[in-house]
């Protein structure tokens, strides 16, 4: 994840909750993509380091365990600088220009100059982030499949040019689709920092309740006595993600019969959200900044050792290493 500040419920349900489950079954690498932050926020880097610590704390609070997975900072593993340069030598310009988010972000972030080499080339950096660990799977939602497919194409092109003996140096990773429930923000749109409609993982209970009080609801419920439809209500979508079947039954019956008001329904949603957030916030408070820095340092060392195994094979295949010359 890019270090753009504290994470919100959308980040948690869309990725982190799944990551916590994956660490029990796979050898996992999770990193804070501070180099990727520079592709759009290069003009002011003052918040990258503090935000990196905040995201790391949220990782740990969510349940990622440094004893069961590797958590690291992208820029602390120098191989994340080296492989993108080499892969950039073989990646056609047209492949980068056709990436859907390339023009989309330029149109949406009109306040930033994104006509840079770094922004155009960020898919190569992303591909390198993946391929450095020669993974079998990349856990992503459906909206990220295109990025993984480009990674596969770059790996395929590399393997066509450079042979690594009996096996491909950069195996083509497969997508591991992870469920991402619909999670609206307080204005009904997708929860996003850029929309200012988020509920943060660190928000205390009074803040969560206040944010939900202002949340949009079913437009058909103009008056308290008007019946509503939870399936057309953003608060109903939150209930579907966080509430128990018993609470959901009360929501459907009460809203459709107008026997409950939106304020009561929002209060139940806040109860359900806080049941998830309370233990997360408790874990977060148990870590000191010194501990987090040490966890990231050790994780970056582990990631660097694994990434160097890949780079040794890459350099040999490209005949860039003394060992390749000697052979």
Task: Give a structural overview.
The chain is mainly α. Helix content is 55%, strand content 5%. The protein folds into two domains: 9-183 and 289-326, HUPs (Rossmann fold, 3-Layer(aba) Sandwich), CATH 3.40.50; 203-283, Tyrosyl-Transfer RNA Synthetase. The protein has helices at residues 9-22, 34-41, 48-62, 79-88, 93-97, 100-108, 117-120, 122-131, 145-161, 205-213, 234-242, 245-257, 262-285, 289-317, 322-326, and strands at 29-32, 70-73, 137-140, 174-177. The strands form two sheets. Strands 1-2 form a two-stranded parallel ribbon. The chain has a two-stranded parallel ribbon with strand order 3-4. β3 (137-140), α9 (145-161) and β4 form a beta-alpha-beta unit. The radius of gyration is 23 Å and the shape is elongated.
- Number of DSSP E strands: 4
Poorly predicted parts: none
Which percent band covers the strand fraction?
under 5%
Query: Can you tell me the CATH class of the largest domain?
Result: Alpha Beta
* Helicity, as a percent range: 55-70%
| Average pLDDT over all residues | 94
Name given to the CATH architecture of the largest domain: 3-Layer(aba) Sandwich
Using the alpha-carbon principal axes, give the shape.
Answer: elongated
Q: Any idea how many domains? A: 2
Largest sheet: 2 strands, parallel
Fourth-tier CATH superfamily name of the largest domain = HUPs
According to CATH, the fold-level topology of the largest domain is Rossmann fold
Return the string of H and E elements.
Answer: HEHHEHHHHHEHEHHHHHH
Q: What radius of gyration results from the CA coordinates?
A: 23 Å
The helix tally amounts to 15
Q: Taking strands numbered 1, 2, ... along the chain, how are they ordered across the largest sheet?
A: 1-2
